[in-house]
């Protein structure tokens, strides 16, 4: 008992307890302030991140709008070009136009204008010049009923020609431009094809197709390739000439059956801007002449025969 009496117990004073409580309060306040500061910093970073994201999205929207505008412009240009091509295809001049599509009388004089201001113009493009030179093809069907009654023996019967329209009074041959010119020899069933060159003194410019048939349809193709002119009859080459100079092309009108024309019929006169192959020419021959009447002076009830009949000429060439 005495031992316990001698031991002194030190209890905390009120001041010590107050100091401890103050220290604990300070610690709590500091911790709270640190947490608050960290939350504020996180909020600021989040706000900055959100702003950056919106800026990125805004920049993407601008790029998308620009790309959309470019796409619309491209589509517009494509549609515009297609529209122009379609209008040119159906309303503009053709590369391979028909000068006559159907059948006309050989004595019916016509002029096919080349001036596009004319309502009935059929413009012809100039030759499709390849590496080998100029080239084009004229294609037509003929039905010659007789050789006429020229007593002079000098006047050719005019079938068609492309040129200025001035004709020699004696021979009835175009005096300036034949590019080409097709004539029936007086009193003889020979076909003359003239192709003028840049040298007006050049006389090496005529192909003669002898003994063409009478009262029968036959097809003629005049094919130019550089300086070589070939004449095909019913798909078979009949004659050839090699020009001394290049062909003289012109922008003059196409004249048909001038000064009385010829006794017979003309069908499907057509110009091709390129030199047709023999297969393409034979394809035209296979289709035969177009007997649809396009001449008001031609009796539509007259039977000029089908190209499949015995009157169709295909035996000689």
UniProtKB/TrEMBL annotation:
Official protein name in the record: LamG-like jellyroll fold domain-containing protein
Short name of any one Pfam family annotated for the protein: Laminin_G_3
Gene3D superfamilies documented for this protein: 2.60.120.200
Annotated source species: viral metagenome
InterPro entries registered for this protein in UniProt: ConA-like_dom_sf
Coiled-coil residue spans: none
TM stretches of this protein: 62-87
Keywords, alphabetical: Membrane, Transmembrane, Transmembrane helix
């Amino acid at each position: 008992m005495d031992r316990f009496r001698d031991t002194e117990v030190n209890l905390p004073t009120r001041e010590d307890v107050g100091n401890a409580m103050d220290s604990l309060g300070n610690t709590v306040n500091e911790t709270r302030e640190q947490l608050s500061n960290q939350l504020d910093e996180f909020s600021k970073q989040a706000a900055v991140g959100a702003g950056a994201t919106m800026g990125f999205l805004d920049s993407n929207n601008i790029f998308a709008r620009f790309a959309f505008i470019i796409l619309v412009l491209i589509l517009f240009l494509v549609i515009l070009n297609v529209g122009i091509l379609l209008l040119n295809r159906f309303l503009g001049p053709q590369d391979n136009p028909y000068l006559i599509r159907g059948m006309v009388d050989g004595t019916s004089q016509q002029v096919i204008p080349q001036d596009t201001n004319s309502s009935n113009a059929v413009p012809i493009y100039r030759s499709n010049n390849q590496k080998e030179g100029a080239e084009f093809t004229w294609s037509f069907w003929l039905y010659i009923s007789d050789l006429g009654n020229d007593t002079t023996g000098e006047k050719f019967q005019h079938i068609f020609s492309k040129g200025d329209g001035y004709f020699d009074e004696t021979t009835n041959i175009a005096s300036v431009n034949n590019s080409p010119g097709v004539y029936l020899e007086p009193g003889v069933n020979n076909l003359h094809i003239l192709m003028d060159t840049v040298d007006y003194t050049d006389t090496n410019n005529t192909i003669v197709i002898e003994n063409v048939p009478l009262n029968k349809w036959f097809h003629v193709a005049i094919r130019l390739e550089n300086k070589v002119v070939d004449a095909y009859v019913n798909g078979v080459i009949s004659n050839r000439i090699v020009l001394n100079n290049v062909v003289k092309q012109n922008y003059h009108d196409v004249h048909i059956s001038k000064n009385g024309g010829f006794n017979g019929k003309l069908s499907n006169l057509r110009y091709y801007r390129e030199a047709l192959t023999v297969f393409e020419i034979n394809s035209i021959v296979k289709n035969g002449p177009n007997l649809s009447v396009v001449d008001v002076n031609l009796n539509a009830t007259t039977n000029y025969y089908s190209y499949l009949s015995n009157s169709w000429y295909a035996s000689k060439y």
